[in-house]
Amino acid sequence: MQTETLLLIIGAAILALGVAVFQYFYRVKYKSKRNRVYAFLRFSTIFGLLLLLINPKYEQVSYYTEKPSLAVAVDNSSSIAHLGYDGVSQDVLSRFRESVKLNDAFDIQYYQFGDDFKSLDSLSFTNKQTNISNALRSLEDIYTTDVAPVVLVTDGNQTYGEAYQYVAQNYNQQVYPVVLGDTIIYDDLKLGQINVNRYAYINNKFPVEIFASYNGKATVQSVLTIRSGGKTLHKQSVNFSPDNASQVFTVNVPAERVGVTQYAISIAPVESEKNESNNYKNFAIEVIDQKTNVLLISNIVHPDVGMLKKSIESNRLRTVTFTKPSDAVSKINEYELIILYQPDESFNDVYKQLETLAKNSITITGEHTGWNAINKFQKTITQEITGQTEEVQARLNPNFSAFVIEDIGFDDFPPLVAAFGETRFNTKADIALSQSIGLVETNQPLIATTEDNGRREVFILGEGLWKWRAQSFVEKRDFKSFDNFIDNLVQYAASNKKKSRLNLDYESFYYGNKAVMLYAQYFDKNYNFDARAKVSIKVINQESKKLTEIPLLLKKNTYQVDMNNLDPGSYKFTVSVTDQGIARSGSFTIVPFDIEQQFLNANVKQLQILASHTDGGLYNPVSLDKLITSLVADNRYKPIQKSTKNSVPFIDWKLLLAILALLLALEWFMRKYNGLT
Known about the structure:
Blueprint: H1 3-25, H2 34-54, E1 57-66, E2 69-75, H3 78-82, H4 86-98, H5 100-105, E3 107-113, E4 117-119, H6 132-142, E5 150-154, H7 164-167, E6 175-179, E7 188-196, E8 199-201, E9 205-215, E10 220-228, E11 231-240, E12 246-254, E13 259-267, E14 280-288, E15 292-298, H8 303-312, E16 318-323, H9 325-328, E17 337-341, H10 348-357, E18 361-364, H11 371-377, E19 381-383, E20 389-396, E21 416-419, E22 423-425, E23 429-437, E24 440-452, E25 455-460, H12 465-476, H13 480-494, E26 502-505, E27 509-511, E28 517-522, E29 535-541, E30 547-551, E31 553-555, E32 558-562, E33 569-577, E34 582-591, H14 604-613, H15 624-633, E35 640-649, H16 654-673
Parallel strand pairs: 2-3, 2-5, 5-6, 8-14, 15-16, 15-17, 17-18, 18-25, 27-34
Antiparallel strand pairs: 1-35, 3-4, 7-9, 9-12, 10-11, 10-13, 13-14, 19-22, 20-21, 20-23, 23-24, 24-25, 26-28, 28-32, 29-30, 29-33, 31-32, 33-34
Helix pairs in contact: 1-2, 2-16, 12-13
């Protein structure tokens, strides 16, 4: 309590005492022993009223008991149902919910995981992938500062993600796996990973790398076969033994027709094999008859140059060749696309040849660009000459209409170095990214496209793109999103197709365990993005002729549709805009692939390592009562008594008002009873 408040209370007591003494002992006609009672009542009443006016604060402490948390995470992937343990999993979950002593000891939260992680609503066992490491990391984020052991109800079979048994080495909570699945080891031949390029060229052979493994105690012989369209393309005998349990086979397969082609790989099961579903796998490739050759012309050595080659060639349909301006003129006609990196006065002959051949190009400028020369060599763009540069950041233009651009986080990318001064286009330009300086957005272009008489040009008016690719990797752990962005620029510049008001972005084939997504952009007659349109897709299964119609949802500046509910097979589709008479058609294939059906047993070994690393324990559904007893009895998970201290104003003490009213009533009654006025 503050000194000032304490002095006020003392003063209030003195004042109340003075008033009481003055009224009942000073100049009183009739003095009696009752005056002391009257004085006490008057003193208490006045002092209580003054305390309410002063309103001091006092500390109020309350106590409560906090139970430790318990996270129960249940595997919702299809491998649980495939192993026949979906009913067992439901039973385990029910026993946890019905255990009185467990619920008395813990605050229990239920979660489910598979290809994602979320609170448990209901179990369907339909997830096509399993990421146990993601579930553990999510639980660690939720219970960062809490005591929260984890019960992991799973078969331990993970299809993607970090190795969870090693992720758990730095895990702060104890993990108790409850193993779902058969722990007996059977003889089993299994096809593992299949490595193959996404594209191949007509009349060439493409390599297929096949990983196969054997689990058993005897020496066995089998046959590895690759088929397509009812035709056997490859067949060979293979031998496995306990000492030769894993093998890699590389087979060159001919690409005989253009388009998407499906292939089936099989390894003949041995006689005692229990699970034959992991003896078969499918894959697909797209056979093409052309490749985009890109010529990159530069006079300087810069990180952007090496980055562009890696990024562009991440699409196996592209090849990049470096050259200097002095050697480029005779080569230009051999390439579909020319990239001019920071051109200067030595590019004079290059510009003349590009004009003569009407070649498409991408121009990238920066600190070393000779703008005086460029302003003379070409007529598309003019840059104000200041001799200075500035750092600029990117802002995505939602009205960009040349092609679909996904926002990959341009706002958060490091700044590029651009020329300081006004940039003017002498023909109609479509700005994809504009410049901003700090929080100030400018009208200056950073990346723009032009199209004049069938000739396309792309301008990237800043250097330092290698930083963007590095930042993209830091944020997303891969280069895919940035490389797709660069690939879209290259594809646009290398193509001479007429601009369309409805643009589609989709894959020619999808694997059954991946998302089946299609993206679209629709533009009005002025080629401004139209967010008011109603866009839908009609999909027809080529085998069953089943028609499915799905609306596309608007997300930022793109319409998109998720078609994960479609069965494997070949499909034709039409995307149309309601009441506009505009439609685009295409086709894609969903390759059947269910990695969850590749498992025969529970992965007891890795679950045991997980339990050991986290100081937990390994259990099975039969020993569930033992697990519950162990959790309840563990001294690490005892309830904790906690207290909270609150500073409460005196005026909030409602009982004081009742006491004051009682004192006043008592004094009045006694005075009246004794004949005092």
